Amino acid sequence: MGVIYIVRHGQASTAAYDTDVADDVPTGLTELGRHQAEHAGVALSRRIGHVDAAFCGDLPRQRETLDLVLAQLPDSPVPTVDERWDEYRIADVLSGVDVPSSTDTRGYQEVLDAALDRWIGGGEGAGESFADFTGRAADALTQAATAAGSGKTVVVASSSGTIAAVVAALWGMPPQSWQSLARMMVNTAITKLIVGGAGVHVASVAEHAHVETAGLMTYR
């Protein structure tokens, strides 16, 4: 059987979630996020003998996370950057919505949740539809599963929404359940999938002891 480990990215800078940010503003990991990614790599090094393939989305926080994870795993392959592992674009989901300041955490989350409900339900918005988003996540998983093949190990760095889309599809969950699944993904949580003759199956979701025991656990 093949194995796929999907790691959510480490804590990213606030700019990574802003709906209007200049191109020259860093959107990679914070110092804490880098520590989280290193801890995830160490945790995986205790479980993995060799990494056969690695994938990540094209977002700076995803690429940086994968680099730090693979640094803890000797002789790792050169990662493949695949935009299908990218997170949904918050700016598109919130297009046309009066958004509170990101410092108003509760107000911002309420507005985002309502916008996500509309998006999931097929409401109008900029950019890709929810169906397109979940479709590309499924396609990305298919490629990773092919790379896992028989007895191989694949490591992926992605984001909470994309990981939740993959797990929700494998579990046959209704679209409306996707949000609650995404919200439980702490930074650098590890989801393990098993690839076998009968397809891809979920072995575990959002494992995070490596950051919880180290006092490094964050959700954003």
From TrEMBL:
Q: Which GO terms describe its molecular function?
A: hydrolase activity
Q: Which domain of life is it from?
A: Bacteria
Which UniProt keywords are present, listed alphabetically? Hydrolase
Q: Record's Pfam families?
A: His_Phos_1
Q: What is this protein called?
A: Phosphoglycerate mutase
Origin species: Gordonia jinhuaensis
